[in-house]
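Hi C.,

You asked whether I'd gotten around to modeling the 296-residue construct. I have! Everything is below, sequence then structure, no commentary in between.
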Amino acid sequence: MYGYLSIYFTPTEEERKNYLYYYCGLCHSLKENLGECYRLTTIKEVVFFSMLNNPVESINEFRCPYVGFKKRVKPASNSFMTPYAYLNLLIIYGKLLDYNLEGKLVPKKVLKKLESKLFEYFDSKIIKEYNHLLMKQQKVEEQNLDLDDYAKPSQEIMEMLFEKFFPQGFPATMPIVTAYLIYLVDSVYDFHKDIKKGNFNAIASSFGVTKLEELTQDQKERILFTYDLCSKEFAENIEEIANFNSFLVKKLATFSLIYHRNSVTKILDGGKKDERATNHSRTNKKGRVQKPVFKI
């Protein structure tokens, strides 16, 4: 499982079941539409997208072998999750294509197989534009640009996805701040790994540093200001696109944004990334990260 929007608070039993309804629904949809192995690629932001557009209806309880046969819940009728299974695949495909563009060769037959599966749901125009924007992102990253400019192709990708999955409309700033948040957090969390492996990193390239300790206080504040600005806009507008689960998605977004803000700040101040940063963790009243509330 991958992603940043998760349960960083102690959920009520109802909140836990409601979240699992979509999480397990996506997991089962990946299996039903794509195959068993794809269940291991579940992305939490895709779960979040599905929560915004679909109500909780009839549920089925089952015991999941992936969590020691503990009880979990899923939709009694899971067909509504099919678009999100393909969205999940699109993001995974994009990541592998990005690896390929960076020179970490992914077998062409693997990419072709994924692309052929994507054509089962997306039309060729979307796949073509998606590939184009990923190549544009690679070309942008070859230039010496400002931090904000590096995220613009990601912004265009996010706009395309919002138009596809929120045809009823959305605030114009939502794709922008969503793209910037993901791009910025990735750049901080992956900084040391990127430098070690010689990969592109937006912070390293924009500020001309090879260590986070080399960032000036003004540069650190610039990163945190961008994060805070985007977080505020995201949190304030999320309810506007939430056709369902308004309270829960606002809570998920708010706690996740706070959690990653604290993690980013800690890293910029010389600390290390919390290995549970993308898992279900919570913070107690004294600010200490405790064990996950529950595991999926």
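If it helps when you're writing up: The chain has one domain: 13-290.

Thanks,
B.
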